[in-house]
Amino acid sequence: MSDLPAAPEDAGLLAPGADAAGRALAAIEAKAPLIMVLGGAGTGKTTFLHELRKAPRGRQVVLAPTGVAALQAGGQTIHSFFGIPPRLQNPDEVKPRAQVRRLLKKLDRVVIDEISMVRADLLDAVDISLRIARDNSEPFGGVQMVLVGDFLQLPPVVPYAEQEMLGRMGYEGPFAFHAKALDGREVTGVPFTFVHRQTDRAFIAMLDALRRGRGAREAAEALNEACVRPHREGTQPVLLTPTNARADAYNARGLAALSDEGREFGGLLKGEFGLEGDRLPVAEKLVLKRGARVMALRNDPARRWVNGSVGTVTGLGPHSALVKLDSGPSVEIEAFTWERIRYGWDEPGGRLEAQVVGTYTQLPLAPAWALTMHKAQGLTLTDVRIDFADGAFAPGQAYVALSRARTLEGLSLVRAITGRDVRVDRRVAEFVERFEG
Predict the structure, then answer these.
(1) Contact by Cβ (8 Å): 402, 411
(2) A GO BP term, please (predicted)?
(3) How far is CA 179 from CA 130, 170, 221, in A?
(4) CA distance 233 to 335
């Protein structure tokens, strides 16, 4: 891949955030063939995606590497959209089905969210699929590609058995920027560098040091000095931990300690709603009790709460829960329906359609004594406590956890951050350094 353009001179940790979104939309409208929208936590990437979905500027699809990420982005998984099996493939094995080919011929743009979790071989399979379907030898068959995410957050999953094989296939690494389809290509890079989530310059600098791996030891020492303590009085934080097992154990203990009999809410699955190995957005059997700590997992259309709002259950109805939000009033939260979509082409109408192929209906609430760091990605939390347990097991995991907090005052640590918690892949750090400047 060719050298990326440097960030504008006025870009920095506290540069005007709206400018980056404007540059990204302008690049899309100017039909730049390959656009990367990359930035750290809380820099407005999700807001940019929402804006792009509201006014799509042509026939586009929004895709993501996992089922949960696709639900959050309001799109489809890459594997299901292209019909690519979730395994290594030789280039000559990539053969899009006839139904997929018809759809790919109509596309103007492919938007991929959470690009940090997309493997290089998968992005190459996307490239080959588009070239074949459109009978066009240009990269990605001439379709505009918009790649959104942060390579310094969660990395792609590469089973041990496949790591050596990727090397033998000629890949320098597993990340999307190692894809052969990007080799030597001109990239329009739009760094999102203005942090909206935090306002404390010192805290922002600490998080940036941990994200990039530059000055990480000093940043960790400063965070340890400020945050290894009991959580501030009068609040009950969400506890973040690396594994599902540890988060589930915290939540089970919290629920068992409540004397209320509680109520079980059953989720309703219809049609095709498999998440390809991911968990459902909310448990199919959700047990709630009065006094339970919960987190909302969807935005309220009336804007009384947002995805990530935390509160305490104060009442239970047959199909709803009354929740006293930590940040506001008591609200009644009723069942929500998640839609699994599949893109298709409406021949009579001559337009791209997002067809609902399955639904899942359940209260959009999860126990919130604890969450995994992975599940917390994208959330903003007022009060968060972090238990690193035996250590973060993936590069970027510690940064994802710490950057959920709005303020240092609302952040506490069960134990001190150590070197084994702060892991940065040097290949990624060097790439982001060139990208962000």
Answers:
(1) yes
(2) DNA repair
(3) 15, 10, 37
(4) 33
Q: 181 to each of 150, 174, 299, how far by Cα in Å? A: 19, 13, 37
The sheet with strand 320-325 has its strands ordered as 330-334, 320-325, 310-316, 293-296, 365-367
CA-wise closest residue to 13 among 200, 205, 152: 205
Q: CA-to-CA distance for 207 and 204, rounded, in angstroms? A: 5
Distance between CA atoms of residues 183 and 162, nearest Å: 22
- Give every CB contact of residue 101 below 8 A, 6+ residues apart in sequence: 132, 133
The model's pTM: 0.82
Instruction: List pLDDT tens digits, range 249-262.
Output: 999 999 999 999 99
How far is 387 from 400, CA to CA, in rounded Å?
A: 13
| Sign of the alpha-carbon dihedral angle for 272, 275, 280, 285 | positive
Could you give the 3-state DSSP secondary structure of residue 31?
coil
Please check whether residue 29 is in contact with residue 22, taking contact to mean a CB–CB distance below 8 angstroms: no
Could you tell me which residues come within 8 angstroms of residue 151 by beta carbon, excluding any fewer than 6 positions away? 38, 115, 116, 175, 176, 177, 428, 431, 432
The pair of structure tokens assigned to 383 is 């009060």
